[in-house]
Design brief:
The complex is a heterodimer of chains A (390) and B (72). In chain A, 3% of the residues lie in helices and 61% in strands. Chain A is mainly β. Chain A is globular and about 75 Å long. Chain B contains two helices and no strands. Classes of the chains: A mainly beta (390), B mainly alpha (72).
């Protein structure tokens, strides 16, 4: 049963901060050209951990002339279900998040500017983000340097009264370097530093501690008010022949919550007549934040405490398969190309120190935390979308 | 110390001046093919990044991302 606006909702937010500017930073191999003029209409469906997230997404890019372009994006997450956190100490819920963004690109010779504004609205959270990026081609257009800055400001609200619980300010500093290495290989380097300040905890999530009966009880989590993180990435795309392309990427992440993470991605693309087939493998590993514990020794054990599984130690593995079919030429002159696309991702996460606190004995009574199994997440994400170039 | 610094600078400048683009424009046709696009489908790349980032602590330097909450 799904209840709208139920008493306790647990949502993990990455906040409306990582804007689409990032797509431009590493996704662009040349600063001297505008992005493709295209429109994409997508429908997504995510299912995992007893939750479903569905909704549409529309991305429109249109040039005003050969120097100025505009883009707009609309995205919806329609969420329903009950995640492990909700099943542990909450109630099933349904809610909606709507994200919109607008941006503009300006190109002048070997330089381009990209400015973007994004907002994400929920009934208990509002996120805003503004970003600017400059790209410069040089060295005979073999190299592209990107410098970006983004600022985010969020408001956390009470779901019922809409009273402000706290605010979050974010800054991001980005550097990107794209390099033509050989006639068949293009490489990328990326760096990003992000600072957060403000209400960083989740107002619904709780931590658990060992109670007098050697079982467990819950209390609100408490986070530091600041976080600073650094990430560096290196990757490349390699042209093997007219039908085969491979890509690879590695990212290292660290922050002042003592989390370190490694991400490895491999991609293979195969062109076959009107079809483009894409497969991706993704492996990820992180250790736990220094104030994370599945269960604390006693109530109010320390100042900062979290039981967010995204701050625990875990490994995840993802596989993605996708197919794009180029449709026959449309009868309208302004349409250059159109495609239909289907992509499916499977995600599997094994947690090393996050236990399934919903598990109870045969009489539905609590059991000791160390008798509960480790939690495992398995999820699938499907996207179907139509793209048209003009 | 100054002599070392100037010498190093000179070596760097000399090295750069002899460095020329090693891939000519007419050799870049493969790199320009659509299959080599670094961001093949922006609408999907941002969605996929959103799915992963909302379930992990790591963030940034990712090449693509969407904003908003990662509900889980």
């Amino acid at each position: 049963m799904v209840q709208q606006g139920a008493a306790v909702v647990v949502i993990n937010r990455r906040l409306g901060f990582l804007s689409v500017i990032l797509i431009v930073i590493v996704g662009r191999s040349s600063a001297g050209v505008l992005p493709e003029e295209r429109t994409d209409v997508l429908e997504h469906h995510y299912a995992g951990d007893n939750i479903t997230i569905t909704g549409p997404s529309v991305l429109v890019r249109k040039n005003l002339n050969n120097k100025i372009a505009f883009s707009g994006r609309y995205y919806v997450d329609q969420i329903s279900g009950a995640t492990i956190d909700v099943r542990t100490y909450g109630s099933p819920y349904a809610e909606k998040r709507t994200e919109t963004s607008v941006g503009t690109d300006v190109v002048q010779d070997n330089t381009s500017w990209h400015v973007n504004y994004l907002q994400s609205i929920e009934n208990d959270y509002e996120a805003h983000n503004a970003s600017i990026e400059i790209n410069q081609d040089f060295f005979g257009d073999l190299s592209t340097l990107s410098i970006g800055f983004a600022q985010g400001w969020d408001t956390v609200m009470d779901r019922t009264s809409k009273a402000t619980l706290g605010e979050v300010d974010r800054n991001s500093y980005r550097l990107g370097w794209s390099q033509v290495i050989t006639p068949k290989i293009i490489g990328n380097l990326g760096f990003e530093a992000i600072t957060d300040e403000g209400y960083l905890k989740n107002q619904y999530r709780q931590v658990r501690y060992l109670d007098a009966a050697n079982l467990y009880a819950f209390e609100p989590e408490a986070y530091p008010n600041t976080r600073t993180s650094y990430a560096v990435s290196i990757g490349a795309m390699q042209y093997l022949n007219a039908n085969n392309v491979i890509g690879y990427r590695y990212r290292y992440f660290t922050d002042n919550w003592d989390i370190k993470a490694h991400t490895v991605e491999l991609e293979y693309r195969y062109q076959w007549n009107q079809w483009l087939l894409v497969s991706q493998l993704r492996a990820y590993q992180q250790n736990a934040a220094d104030f994370y514990a599945d269960i604390f020794p006693y109530e109010k054990y320390q100042t900062f405490k979290a039981r967010d599984k995204e701050l625990s130690q875990f490994q995840s593995f993802g596989i993605s398969l996708g197919a794009t079919y180029v449709l026959p030429k449309a009868p309208w002159d302004f349409v250059e190309k159109s495609t239909v696309n289907v992509f499916v991702d499977h995600l599997s996460v094994d947690y090393d120190n996050f236990y399934d606190a919903t598990v109870r004995d045969a009489n539905h009574q609590k059991i000791a935390a160390d008798q509960q199994p480790l939690f495992h997440l398995s999820a699938n994400a499907i996207r179907v979308f139509f793209s048209v170039w003009y | 110390m100054k002599i070392v610094a100037v010498s190093l600078l000179w070596v760097l400048i000399s090295g750069c001046s002899s460095l020329h683009p090693w891939v000519q424009p007419y050799e870049r046709d493969h790199l320009a093919e659509p299959i080599m696009s670094l961001n093949l489908n922006p609408v999907d790349v941002s969605y996929r990044a959103h799915v992963y980032e909302s379930r992990e602590a790591a963030r940034g330097a990712d090449g693509a991302a969407g904003g908003g909450c990662g509900c889980n």
